[in-house]
Backbone:
């Protein structure tokens, strides 16, 4: 049942919601995953420092001691009001997500508010988490320029659990694509797919950009064989060219519903770094992505 072999005790799907337009999509993706994994969902909203008050203010200038004291008192009151509003707003966001999950048929749902950065929250809850679901962009993202949310970048760099990055709107996952780079991490992705029921019986495309020779070719062949053994309907596709462009084009051309890829490719750096290819694929593709370390 585990999405990661050997981690059967980690049952919770962590749905990270904020006030962005991706909130409903995160909830819907979490409901889909909960059904596939037979797992409960915990909704979490992290109240960052900006929301809760405590921002820096320039206290310089020609203010005497009494004026500074008055100003500090007013700023303290303002911070307190902002913190209360952030708490009330966060509770509404969580309650709406919980209600939406229950309406979707998820029996076990809970919700909580956390203070601090969302990446830190996910790290704190890692031991009890099976899968993390986040939106591709948050409230602070620049939609006009197609920027990914800064929180997503931090989460992707630090998350120790599989990360499902929700697209703007949920649609049923009818087929998925594995971005197979031929490295050892690609073989690890296949092993996780082999062990997990999340995508079982969903048609799979193994897509490799580059020459399938040597170790890379052997790993591709073994991956196909391994997935077929697990019951997947697998097709293999190979193209030469720019990985980001070809993957984005194939996702659109073949109406792919989900892209599965590793957090890093051939890099030997063991600290978790999201490579430019991974980031660019997430940005370009209008479908959800499942990132597996």
Residues:
């Amino acid at each position: 049942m585990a999405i990661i072999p050997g981690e059967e005790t980690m049952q919770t799907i962590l749905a990270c919601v904020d006030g962005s337009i991706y909130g409903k999509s995160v909830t819907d993706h979490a409901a889909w995953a909960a059904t596939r994994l037979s797992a409960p969902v915990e909704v979490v909203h992290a109240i960052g420092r900006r929301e809760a008050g405590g921002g820096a203010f320039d206290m310089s200038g020609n203010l005497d001691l009494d004026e500074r004291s008055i100003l500090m008192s007013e700023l303290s009151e303002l911070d307190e009001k902002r913190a209360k509003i952030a708490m009330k707003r966060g509770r509404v966001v969580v309650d709406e997500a919980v209600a939406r999950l229950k309406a979707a048929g998820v029996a076990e749902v809970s919700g909580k508010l956390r203070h601090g950065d969302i990446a830190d929250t996910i790290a704190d809850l890692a031991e009890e988490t099976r899968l993390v679901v986040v939106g591709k962009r948050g409230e602070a993202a620049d939609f006009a320029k197609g920027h990914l949310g800064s929180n997503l970048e931090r989460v992707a760099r630090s998350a120790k659990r599989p990360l499902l990055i929700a697209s703007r709107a949920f649609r049923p996952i009818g087929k998925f694509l594995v971005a197979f780079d031929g490295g050892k991490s690609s073989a690890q992705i296949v092993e996780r797919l082999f062990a997990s029921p999340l995508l079982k019986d969903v048609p799979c495309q193994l897509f490799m950009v580059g020459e399938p020779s040597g170790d890379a070719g052997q790993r591709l062949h073994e991956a196909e064989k391994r997935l077929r053994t697990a019951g997947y309907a697998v097709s293999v596709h190979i193209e030469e060219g720019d990985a980001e462009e070809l993957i984005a084009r194939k996702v659109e051309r073949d109406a792919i519903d989900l892209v599965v890829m590793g957090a890093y490719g051939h890099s030997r750096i063991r600290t978790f770094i999201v490579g430019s290819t991974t980031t660019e694929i997430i940005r370009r593709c209008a479908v959800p992505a499942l990132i597996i370390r």
About this structure: The first strand starts at residue 12 and ends at 16. The chain is about 40% helix and 20% strand. Residues 71 and 90 are 28 Å apart (CA to CA).
